[in-house]
């Protein structure tokens, strides 16, 4: 972060309290940097607390306002604690960016049930846990914004991503239903669908050959994480009456 908030205040972001899950690397960390440099108060959650501490220190040293809390999104109580960290410190929560995710992709025939459960628990249950924690605060405040990172994997279905894509599309479906239930003007929902983005996501693919291929695709055509962060910032920066429903953001060369 090279500019302070007064130099770079992006209208609609300055002063907003934004909790971000999966903030210890990749898209979450880039979003924290982008929003903090635009004057948001960021409340960062992930499991790797040492990474969070480094990022919080970096953002605060650059004139931002960041706090971190070790958070495992598969645990409902951790999301309640993350939201409470925001409300205790600032009195409110304006936005929850549900970004934490895992992509332990493999052919279905491998029957890696443990990986399936990890993706369901993190990518689907983790988002639901965040909604359950944030929604009562949003309702009490009379305003709030859920920004959720899904994937182009749910838009273009390809082999090896069956469970991963299923979790992302389950979230997309859930958010559309929630949007339709929430037309009283209190809640905004935004789904962000990135394509290939250069992050650590593919480092956890169990099969070494599949992992190497996915890492190479990411390296060769992936866009930087801050491209997605800018899309998230755009959605957050809109006036309360304007809901950006879906943003798809992928490398220009991605098929
Ligand atoms: N990179 C891409 O090409 C791409 C494309 C489409 C969608 N996405 C989505 O973008 C999101 C961010 O991924 P990324 O690409 O930035 O990958 P990443 O660098 O691996 O980041 C994933 C983040 O999720 C966190 N996380 C994983 N499990 C968690 C849990 N149980 N509780 C809390 N945090 C957890 C990780 O932190 P800890 O390990 O410290 O908990 C990490 O901060 C994911 O939802 C992913 O599905 C990525």
TrEMBL record:
Gene Ontology MF: a single term: oxidoreductase activity, acting on the CH-OH group of donors, NAD or NADP as acceptor
Gene3D superfamilies, A to Z: NAD(P)-binding Rossmann-like Domain
Keyword entries, A-Z: Oxidoreductase
SUPFAM superfamilies: NAD(P)-binding Rossmann-fold domains
Pfam families per UniProt: adh_short (PF00106)
PROSITE patterns hit by this protein: ADH_SHORT (PS00061)
The UniProt record lists the keyword Oxidoreductase: yes
Domain Ketoreductase: 16-199
Family label: Belongs to the short-chain dehydrogenases/reductases (SDR) family.
Protein name: Oxidoreductase
Organism in which the protein naturally occurs: Reticulibacter mediterranei
Higher taxonomy: Bacteria, Bacillati, Chloroflexota, Ktedonobacteria, Ktedonobacterales
